[in-house]
Design a protein that fits this description.
- Chains A, B: InterPro entries: Amidohydro-rel, Metal-dep_hydrolase_composite, Metal_Hydrolase, MTA/SAH_deaminase.
- Two copies of one chain form a homodimer.
- With 429 residues, the first copy, chain A, is α/β, with parallel strands linked by helices.
- Chain A folds into two domains: 2-64 and 358-408, Roll (Urease, subunit C, domain 1), CATH 2.30.40.10; 66-350, TIM Barrel (Alpha-Beta Barrel).
- Chain A is built from 14 helices and 17 strands.
- In chain A, the strands form two sheets. In chain A, strands 1, 2, 3, 4, 5, 14, 15, 16 and 17 form a nine-stranded mixed sheet that branches. An eight-stranded parallel sheet of chain A has the order 6-7-8-9-10-11-12-13.
- In chain A, a hairpin with a 5-residue loop joins strand 1 (2-11) and strand 2 (17-25).
- In chain A, helix 2 (104-120) packs across helix 14, helix 11 packs across helix 12 and helix 12 (332-347) packs across helix 13 (379-386).
- The interface between A and B is large, with 74 and 73 residues.
Chain lengths: 429, 429
């Protein structure tokens, strides 16, 4: 499909706003400009692009798609089933027993609900960890959604052999899919498995990701076991030799921050989940000052429960301000960078990290003609502080429109997906 | 207008869900039931109601309108003009100088932007304090929106005489409008004015409201001035003899909480604003345990910047969990009560506090057929943890539909309002 967006405002790499046109040819942005000098695209006199659609953006805003840099998409099956419970009860009496009942083909359905929700929030790709990677990847590919799957290696549900097989398979499976090495967490993965994973990282020169220092107890128990923090342990074991990153990263000390900075690791913060499970507030200001790449994730719908980047963006800046007792920290532009380019960097998606010629067309259209976006003092601050899913008019992944004016253009009818999902949860009860 | 909602799910006073019909006659709910036994409404055989509209709710959810229990609506003029600044700089270099430039007729325009945003978020009434009460009230009345205005008595912009005149005028002005006694804050209102206000409270047997203990510094300075906290000062001065309440109420000690409990005062919490200005987290759990009525406000758009009750609801429970280090505190049902009935109680709106026969028809329709509301394990938890403005399909105030499917039915075209607003802010720069 060739799609011409005209009469647009466009958020650039530098978080500035430019006005003009953005052209999509196939899955790629082929032109951004005033629509007058198009010699970079139409090289010969008489060259024309045949447009499948020409969209008048009416001076609304085209933005790079948000990158949801940490989630467990299929856990929509647990949404609102296990809230307002102490953390251990939540995990041991709700999450684990119910996950044990979930089948792969059911995870496929629930992943689709998450994908739809991502699209309503301008999210065009997700960094997903789950016990059914195959089914989650398939749901994404079937919907046309971009996924970076990360292995959740642990003592109970997976092995190094499976992991390596998946790594090889899904890095050569579909243009919408890639696969990273990862493990669930220090407290669920024994040292032998971690050593094996370090070996795979070495073999493939691959970065490694994991849940890291989400709770105070997790760090204390690791220190009891190994005499050091999770980050220090992973560093010593060689897991960070080729980069990677951590999810949550709340209970970090200065040494942990130094390691992340030195190894060029990404911190993926998950503020809504960290509130709902009473985990704490990540020291993002310190991390930012250390030059660490920051990204934002919703975490899974069992612990958030909303898959909404607008809510997360407000929380990133609001909680940093609260933590530092300073209303000036974590500027809106920095947060917007985290939600887009920072996320892409964490996920290895350098080809769709911003709106520029040659990049994949992963973008969304923000309706500014709504009361929450008015007046127009400052568009990026409006986006971060008062933006909402309600403003998302159109979401495109890899050049295809998957969501527009409240309608989904994925492989299946929403009502069918909801029906199947509710049948499954009825059976589970 | 007579409007019949059928095929509905309806949120009841007890936060349960019932299924059936809800009928609106004029501005009042006249029937809730299965639509079969209608003898309570159509008393004679052959009695029929002529419907202006019959709306198939398609098993979506009718809810009592949210009550925004603390705001400064017209401050949309400052949205995104003054963010990411230290508190004092924000107040002294941005808010006050820009407010000095604002005219009453301009406040009227900006109040309309806020009203529109309220409607998109299912908010049907606002408890508003501002320097231009007359214009804000008029904007609400012209739009058909319900307002409780509270006087913002202070040393600089108003007098007791004006206040009393407004109190008398606006409690007998329009069915959509009422007026409460209030002052801006301890640090902006000298003791003589407060004594005068206590006199008016006594004269009219009227409750009194104010910003209270929003920042640590405010409480410390009050203790330096008077040797006691703001709450203790106001209690001793007789300001709470007829009830009332406080906005923010973050830096409360046990004695403050006791006073609020004893006097049946309401605490209106403003969590997004308290994050963005780095003010702190209110001790809501303790207040709840003391039996204090709790309500939720967005605060004004200069300090939030979003006027969205869904964001506030998530923050109320999330921040309480964080503060208490306990994921079990502040259950979703309690939060929903705060956002509806608790707010109405704080604002003196006992005739539109819930959906019941005889109550004013202030309600909204929540679209559940969206991915963020699926599956349907638990509707109230879905509402509080993953609900969004995107789900608000229709908002009705006093029996009139003011917002439906993204369209506004207020006195003026949105584009006209935005145009005027942007012209004003351009002049201000």
């Amino acid at each position: 499909m060739n799609i011409r967006f005209y009469n647009a405002r466009i958020l650039t790499e530098t978080m500035d706003i430019t006005e003009g046109e953005l052209w999509v040819r196939g899955n790629t942005i082929c032109y951004i400009g005033d629509g007058e000098d198009v010699s970079s695209v139409c090289k010969e006199p008489g060259d024309v692009i045949l447009w499948d659609r020409e969209i008048d953006v009416k001076r609304n805003l085209l933005m790079p798609g948000f990158k949801n840099a940490h989630t467990h998409s299929a856990m929509t099956f647990l949404r609102s089933m296990a809230d307002d419970l102490p953390l251990q009860e939540w995990l041991n009496e709700q999450v684990f027993p119910n996950e044990a009942k979930l089948k792969g083909e059911e995870a496929y359905i629930f992943a689709k609900i998450a994908i739809m929700e991502y699209l309503t929030s301008g999210i065009t790709s997700a960094f997903d960890m789950y016990i059914y990677p195959k089914e989650v990847i398939q749901a994404c590919v079937d919907c046309g959604f971009r996924i970076v799957q990360v292995s959740g290696l642990n003592n109970f549900t997976s092995s190094l052999e499976e992991l390596e097989e998946q790594y090889v398979t899904y890095n050569d499976y579909h243009e919408l899919c890639s696969y990273k090495l990862g493990f669930h967490a220090e407290y669920t993965t024994d040292k032998k498995l971690l050593e094996g994973l370090a070996g795979l990282s070495e073999k493939y020169h691959a970065p490694v990701y994991t849940h890291n220092s989400e709770t105070k107890r997790e760090v204390e128990e690791c220190r009891q076991r190994y005499g050091k923090s999770p980050t220090q342990l992973f560093e010593e074991m060689g897991l960070y030799r080729y980069g990677g990153g951590g999810y949550h990263c709340i209970w970090f000390d200065d040494e942990d921050i130094d390691i992340f900075a030195k190894r060029n690791l990404s911190v993926v913060t998950n503020p809504a989940s960290n509130l709902k499970l009473a985990s704490g507030i990540a020291p993002l200001k310190k991390m930012q000052e250390a030059g660490i790449n920051l990204a934002i994730g919703t975490d899974g719908p069992a612990s958030n429960n909303c898959l909404d980047m607008f809510r997360e963006m407000f929380l990133v800046t609001g909680l940093a301000k609260l933590r530092e007792h300073d209303a000036a920290v974590m500027d809106a532009n920095d947060v917007l960078y985290m939600a887009t380019t920072g996320g892409a960097k964490a996920m290895g998606l350098s080809d769709c990290d911003c709106l520029a010629v040659g990049k994949k067309a992963d973008l969304f259209l923000m309706d500014l003609m709504q009361p929450n976006m008015q007046p127009e003092h400052n568009l990026t601050k409006n986006l971060v502080y008062s933006g909402s899913k309600q403003n998302v008019k159109l979401t495109m992944v890899n050049g295809k429109i998957l969501y527009e004016d409240g309608q989904f253009f994925i492989s299946e009818e929403p009502q069918e997906i909801y029906k199947k999902a509710n049948e499954i949860v009825s059976r589970m009860k």
